[in-house]
Amino acid sequence: MSGAAAEGGVAQWLADHGGLALEGERVVGELAERLVAAGVPLRRVMVALNDVHPEVGARAFRWERGLGHSLDLLPLTARTQPDYLVSPVRLIHDGAAAVRRRIAGPGAEGPLEFPVLEDLKAEGYTDYMAMPLTFSDGSRHFVSWASDAPEGFSTDALTLLYDLMPLICLRMEIAHARVTSRTLLETYLGALAANRILAGRIRRSESEALAAVLLFADMRGFTHQAERLGAGDLVALLNVFYDAIAAPVAAHGGDVVKLVGDGILTVFPIEPEASREMLEEVAVHAAHAAQDADRALSGLAPEELPESVSAVAGGFALGYGPVSFGNVGSRARLDFTVIGPTVNEVVRIETLTKTLGAPILASSAFAALVPGVPLASLGVHVLKGMRAPQEIFSLRPRRG
User: Exposed, middle or buried by CB within 10 Å (0-12, 13-18, 19+), for 349?
Assistant: First the structure.
């Protein structure tokens, strides 16, 4: 295939996605395969895109001949590690226009100043080229191309890569923007809300009625801690509390929908066609999530807490019933949240954990769902703002 035909074919694919929302790793994989078909002697391609996830520093897409494509999530600490500080990636991030090194064969020079190139040489690579991926917001990302051909990259191959870079940047930015949007929505609103917003349910007052199991938790003694802790320690304490609850909730299929001060509201949605057995299974998962969260709080080590805090405890309430999930707010500022009497109920029930001396309480509607869960009746109680008194049940913690 001639150089012009090769460039035209790959360029056409990059520019016309045909309505396919390919993930970043698939874009990298298919791009590499098309470049190989066009005569570029690639053995490996690596793309690293800065991420917006609170615990992910970058998304690394890799393709290697014979192995296909893959995705690795790099931690936020990646840029503090020694291998990054002495890498071509850092040079590109710092503004280098390109990094070209002949690893072996004609034109090779030594010693190789980057450890990654020594590793590639040991694996039989001969040539390496790193370039910046510059997105439309000015952010710099990274792509590298590596070959094991004896002659390395020809001038025509490098010219093809350079000429295609604007389209490669565009295609990768589109793919990454989708991931970034979902990541931000899930981080700030939760997966349930993110899915609905991305599906276009953004009109004010647009909502859906659904049945759900709710778990609400509140930190014990937060007001006292807020009065005596500095801002940094208080935020650290809240993060520890939220982590202890959100992790088991996610592990049991729930989703965090609201953080309010020291309170956290989570939902375990139930499909409209769910059978009684499926409904009971969701409720059991919610009960176990509450127990696991309570145990996580009681098991926190001193080094996990701010220096002047010795322990953290919470109150938990489980409920079941209809809720409305959708947009609430002003014309200019909306919140995608869950509202309804069931929400008010679990919040009121949680306040009883203090007076009843039980860390995990449940409504009568929830108790009716889980006959196999060891719930004990604590009698009938009046809930603030609720019309009728309700029988409240306690769930035994699982500690140790």
Answer: buried
User: What's the CA gap between 46 and 142, in Å, rounded?
Assistant: 8
Q: How far apart are CA 154 and CA 187, in angstroms?
A: 45
C-alpha 77/C-alpha 399 separation (Å) is 33
DSSP labels, 55-95: TEEEEEEEEETTTEEEEEEEEGGGGGSHHHHTSHHHHHHTT
Mean pLDDT (whole number) for 228-252: 92
Across 63-72, 174-183, 224-233, which has the greatest mean pLDDT?
63-72
Which domains does the chain carry?
A: 3-189 (3.30.450.40), 191-395 (3.30.70.1230)
d(CA 58, CA 53) in angstroms, rounded, equals 9
Q: Which tokens hold the place of 389?
A: 């008194």
E strands within the chain?
44-50, 56-64, 68-75, 99-102, 127-134, 140-147, 207-219, 255-260, 263-269, 314-329, 334-339, 360-362, 375-381, 390-395
pLDDT digits (tens, 9 = 90+) for 376-389: 999 999 888 777 88
- pLDDT grade for 22, boundaries at 50, 70 and 90: confident
Q: pLDDT at position 1, please?
A: 46
Strand duo 314-329 + 390-395: pairing:
unpaired
Give residue 336's pLDDT: 75
Of 276, 266, 288, 277, residue with least CA distance to 192: 266
Question: pTM of the predicted model, to two decimals?
Answer: 0.75
- Retrieve residue 291's tokens: 């127990």
